[in-house]
Batch of 2 targets.
Target 1
Amino acid sequence: MNEVLLLVGIVIMICILLGRFAENLPVPSLLIFIGLGMFFGVNGPIGIQFDDYSVSENICTICLIFIMFYGGFGTNISSARPVLGKSICLSTFGVLLTAGFTGTFIHFVLGLSWTESILIGSVIASTDAASVFNILRSQSLALKDNTASLLEVESGSNDPISYMLTLVLISVMTGEEISVPLMLFQQIFFGLAGGFLIGWIGILLLRHFNFEMEQGRTIFVFAIALTAYALPSLLGGNGYLSVYLCGILMGNYYIPDKKYLVHFFDTITGISQMIIFFLLGLLVTPAQLGPVLIPAILIMVFLTLAGRPISVLLILAPFRSSLRQIGVTAWSGLRGVASIVFSILVVLNDVPMKYNLFNLVFCIVLMSIAIQGTLLPWVSEKLQMIDLHGNVERTFNDYQETTGVNFIKIHVKERDRLAHCLLKDAFLPSGLLIVMILRDNDSIVPNGNTEILPNDLLVAAAPEFEDRRNLSLYENVIRPNHPWLNKPLWKISIPAGCLIVLILRDGVSIIPEGKDILREGDVIVTARF
């Protein structure tokens, strides 16, 4: 057990350090983690023998839950609304067409049966949200005509269709007696119902329930993501569809302290991607890839140059999309995590196949990320689709939580200089804007002629200070024998470079003044510069 924990700790540390290094490389960083897994794997220098498909499938499924949830949570529906119809058509009919075209190619060129061919096409039919998001953000790739939003919604929402096709074909090929229409109905109905219901319940509870435990909201949303997948799955529904819809709902409605959720799930998603790609590199046996290499290359070439482009053209042409947008969208069909997870599912169900599907799909995904991912910025530039004045971060919800603006409150007292003063005459520092006045039980949006009254609570916006490298905060508790007990702040000798910035008293935060007297039990927050 200790050896396993040591290995896990070392691998995670290496992945995080390599992730930082890989940001400056021209290739997608996810390739680094696959390479690291192969380095530790059976044919690598470390030589770890790992071939447990069941454990791999469980770990990858858990990681994919959070990738799907955060994909929905981070999707800005307002930005995506102009291309929402295109995205939904691509993520549904596009997957069906791609699976059909690819399956037909495999049947006639590789000579496999129709069911086996369509199964392979279904497994690799969806585009990968993790890979697409990773490249768009790491390369700061802002695209014209809302194409970035189009790709984000499509790649985040097309896995459920691919998953349903895979399940149906697994059942057919293993001889399981099922009603395909009933199975599809359960997958869609419980997936949609579960996502909407759990998402709405989560929003209501987050808005109205007082989470006294620190980071309670974060842990609660973590649990919601797991529930949104597990509950519909138990009922025969599509857990991936449910968790994605749940993420969209929660990400596009007001939730208190959303920026902390963004930071948490951004980290979880990043680690999940590292774990999945490292694990896949560890699971694969490079010495066994020879028999599937030529078929993988043929499928990859067809999928990239014909299957995906034809599907995209048939769907986007009726929307009168430009050929440039169609070209970039077609090239952006990266394969990734979901395809490999679905291939492991096929292996675990002992589906009779000519090729080892995991090895075949692994090669396709590796080539897709390496070739399409690396060349996507170049293709976008050649097709003149790069928006030089755009910001791809604006297409994600978490951008709204990182605008560099903080809100502060100012309580106006009777003798304050602001009391009985018109807002336009008030002496306020440059860069400080009064955005709202809370008076009694009313909220007032002020203008220059608004009078500030005693007991008003002013809500002000100010730029956030981000460079905190030389600023540290420390807490001290005033105990019975503390030398500052019962003394006003102006009498206290504070070391140079320090400032008392906050007093926590009985759960209330007090901005200190020189006349404030420190009491027993006060928590003093001191800034040290």
Note: The mean pLDDT is 83.
Target 2
Amino acid sequence: MNNKFLKSIVAGIIATIAMTVLMVISGKLGMPKMEPPHMLATTLGAPVVVGWMMHFMIGVSFALIYTYVISGWFEKINSVVLKGVVFGVIAAVMAKVSMTIMGKMFDTMPAPSGNMALVLMGLVMGHILFGIVVVWFIHRK
């Protein structure tokens, strides 16, 4: 797949699936339950399907941001995994900042539940996986 834009869209979809699977599995293993699609739907007073669509649109947007903005920052890093980890941490920070802003804007946004250290750890872990998958897919030959 040579088209950078299309490759980014596919990378965002695949990475969002990977991150979502990790969230489901980690919730079953005792980590706090994290459900971004439900959080988005509840916040906006929309059906859950809208939350799922937004979740994937955000994932695709992050992949496009990596491709067209952030990837140039990592030219001196040779490791795809390290690029993915750094991008994942950046994505996690962007997600946390966005959720904090949304919480201030919308009274309907549910507050995170459970141990906040574990919630943040899960947020970072999920986005690191997301970042690794995006970077790997975009840079694969």
Note: The chain has one domain: 4-139.
